[in-house]
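ok trying this again, last paste got cut off
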Amino acid sequence: MQDSNSVGIVTPQYVHIDKPLCLKSGTVLNSYNLVYETYGKLNSARSNAVLICHALSGNHHVAGVYADKPKSTGWWDNMIGPNKAIDTNRFFVIGVNNLGGCHGSTGPASIDARTGKPYGANFPIVTVEDWVETQEQLANHLGIDEFAVVAGGSLGGMQALQWTLDFPERVRHALVIAAASKLTAQNIAFNDVARQAIITDQDFYGGDYYSYNTLPRRGLRLARMLGHITYLSDDSMAAKFGRELRSGTFSFGFDVEFEIESYLRYQGDKFADQFDANSYLLMTKALDYFDPANTYDGDLSAAFRAAKANFLVLSFTSDWRFSSERSRAIVKALLDNEINVSYAEITSSHGHDSFLMENHYYHQLVRAYMDNILI
């Protein structure tokens, strides 16, 4: 039975941007495509738009389902819809697949007009700042001068932060959930191990595996398995899997024995069938590079002097990859600049994935904040 508060059947939309994009790396893309979805209606004042920025493995499909895939529920469908925390009866919500992605926006698997072949390894490195600039171009295309809210979790929260710095006049509120102002050394290390798993796969071919009609499936599978471990908490894994054996006894071999092994391999296989390895490399590099305080000698408070938005910052107790300490550092930098900010640390056992989960208290916090936004 379809959720009565679902946005229902949705259809992706496409926009071609002809304005050249000068990336942080120095490379210029003369044009590019973005795929996006919208939910709700833009009001006559064009003051109720909400931009949802996706995390590493996310995309534009944020809510609803596709007509030909009734089980294709959007990744934040529990948060967005009629009468939900982000209420599409009030707000016009936009989800976009980032440049460099693999779900319709221009990325490594796209055809390079100069060669007639996929970009592959020639697709340039992209950063959070680059994504925000492309999202601003999408806003221009849609006739939106100012977002009521820019929101996201994890890497999406980083984009929300960057929006308030790059286009402070175009964001009234920022929802920064389970995010950080920069990665720790440990997080960078996890990302590098994941990338090495892909790059050293014999089917990677230097990123040009499309030409060889193959995929670095094993490397991407391992990368996802490693990443998935870091998105969970010890408590959530213990509660869901413990040390349960699939057959009830040891087999004294190296095949799957524990339920957690079976789960991770399933997640790895599923992800390898749905995501492009080159896009995964790009997304993790964007995570590594993000650090708005870098040009201010590490002073995060100085970095936020340009921000004018109001903020809701949320963290989760069991999120050890993007710990609450990292969110509190953002809150302190905002308060140092006398910026309006609300903060909550939410009790959850789901680790970093908590921002995607159904949690009554969490959703009520978001709902209460959104309900107080004037449109």
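PB: full thing came through this time. The two ends are 33 Å apart (CA to CA).
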